[in-house]
Amino acid sequence: MSDTVTIIDNKTGKQIECPVLYGTYGPPVIDTKSLYNELGMFTFDPGYLTTASCRSAITYLDGEKGILMHRGYPIEQLAEQSTYLEVCYLLLYGELPTREQYDGFRADLNKRNLVHEHLERFYTGYLYDAHPMAIMVGITGALSSYYHEALDINDPVDRDITAKRVIAKMPILAAHCYKHAMGHPFVYSRDDLGYVQNFLNMMFSLPNRAYVPNPTAIRALDLLMILHADHEQNASTSTVRLSGSAEANPFACIAAGIVTLWGRAHGGANEAVLRMLTEIKDPKNIPQYIAKAKDKDDPFRLMGFGHRVYKNYDPRATIIRKACHDLIDELNTVHQPLFEIAMQLEEIALKDDYFIERKLYPNVDFYSGIILKALGIPTSMYTVMFALARSAGWIAQWMEMMTDPDFRIGRPRQLYIGTEKRDYVPMEKRSQRHD
Ligand code: ACO
Asked: What global pTM score does this model have?
């Protein structure tokens, strides 16, 4: 007999047996699907902290132990030995590609690494100083207008082409945001360059000046993108899945994911970290900011610290911390002071009882901003960089959802705490109750 959990309604004495489901790893999951039909009850779980919203075979993370794996491969091994494009393939298809599969994948992406010339005109609708994430939301949503009528989301071939389009075109959309802000001409994709190098070329080359990339910079950005490629059912991924569950256009679903990622409690944190480090200005001011973060009457939080799931060191932060050191040493940039502040802030916070008791460790965003700064990417583009990398995870999760036998429109329930039924009162008879 399979495992079950008995749920008893003490009021009525009715009880049901809920099956317990076991994944490869992770805590067992109680299947409460029959709860409403059998007991007429919902579950209450604000923020979905203990709710598994789907079955997924893409990413596993254990926040207590600080483990992150994609398709079974530990993030440390992928970060050390793989490339972002390989990880994209792995997320989408479940296996690391052979040389032949990898070359075929690259060729398929290259086939799709242009955008319709007309799309460029959308950028001119935005002020030059519009936040690039605002542009990304609009432009990615606009892509859906090019791929809608002819796109059949129930056709696996169309879905595969959609995934490749997303991965091929996101770097173009992102780089053009920067070019728009700078007032520089857009730069086309080049098939002869690697994925990350091509992106940097679209960002930084000019008609009068070729961009000569530093190999360490390319590797650092590739690493950063691997670390951000997917992260299980976080807020933006869940948004993509929820939009997708309504059978919305997949490009519009990605735009919805970008909206959620922009929030500073999520992907917007990397930008917030840099602003915070700049504001701290000098290591001698760190104690003052630590005190602010601990003060319950002050809304300030130490940006780049804490994580909804990791209650241990974020494994991505460990990897990126080292990359950050290497890059700063190699490029010998003027951003060293910010890195110094970050190092000292981390050290002081990790010894502080407030952070220890609450298990608040540096997250991936704590270091990613410093790397991006060293690469010459402006602060306002940081969350765009995150969106660029995460789009692989979003579209892989969307693909998985579309073939899930449990696939149905997402529809959370609620605990209604509003007014009881009452009758409409004509305006002239209403008393002023809200003054
Ligand atoms: N600075 C100071 N105190 C903090 C911080 C922080 N960064 N994060 C959490 N706390 C405190 C809370 O005030 C709370 O204290 P209390 O128990 O005395 O009330 C306790 O730690 C638990 O905090 P919660 O908000 O319940 O933690 P939760 O897991 O819900 O929040 C979050 C996680 C949103 C990431 C939070 O830690 C935060 O705001 N961090 C700063 C922003 C950030 O770096 N976000 C990036 C997340 S990673 C990513 O999206 C890639």
From this structure: 0.90
